[in-house]
Give the backbone structure.
Amino acid sequence: MGNFFVLIGFIGFCWGIGGLIKSFHKKKTRKRPLLILGAAFIVMAIGFANVQPSNNASSSEVKIQSEKKVETKKEKQGNKRKTQEEKQKQEDEQKDQEEKQKQEDERKAQEEKQKQEDERKAQEEKQKQEDERKAQEEKQKQEEINQRTVDATNKLAQAEASPTNENYQAALTAIQAIPNGNQDLSNRLVVVDSTIKANEAAEQQRQQQAAAQAQQQAAAEAQQQAAQQAAQQAQQQNNEQVVYIAPDHGTKYHLSPNCSGLNNANSVVPMPLSEALAKGYTLCKRG
């Protein structure tokens, strides 16, 4: 309300000033403008009088509102700060969580890397042991091959020097005992086998020839012996008395083939007396 009076007074004051200025130019009476100015001044004074308490009240209200605004602002700032702090806290917690997660991931990655490294080393160690085992087996196998090769070579040399079936079988067994065999020794053994077969064939032929010669010699000796016996018999027959016997008829010898004691004989054989006596024949009483 005080503001309204101040406004009316201000308008009246302006109007009075305007009228007063016109009175100077037109040389009219200045009473009316002065009255208006006085009334306007009074109205403005009343208005100011009413405005002062309002201003005080307004000031208090403004102060209260200002304080409220300050409090609100502080509250907002506090809330904002709290929100920011909460947000910062969340961000810090998130960063901390992310950092922990990062550290956990790095730890797991390191563990996985270490695990892979351990597995790789274990695999390498296993492969190394496997290679060493294979190398040892290969070494032992080669030593066995060398030893058996030397043994087979010695027995083959013996078979080559003395090509017999016994030496051949010993060399063959030794060569077959060599792991994966030995083609060079096998080829040399084939030559030994051929030599043995050739020697056996030659020996068989020699034996056949010797048997034939022995048979021929035996036949010649038998023929010669028969001739000698025949000559001896002829000589004995010329020198000794001849008697006659019947091989299938008794044990008597007869001085004549016409002896009656030979009438029933199936056959009559002449024989020297000494031979007949030697065989146990006795003289027939009939002569």
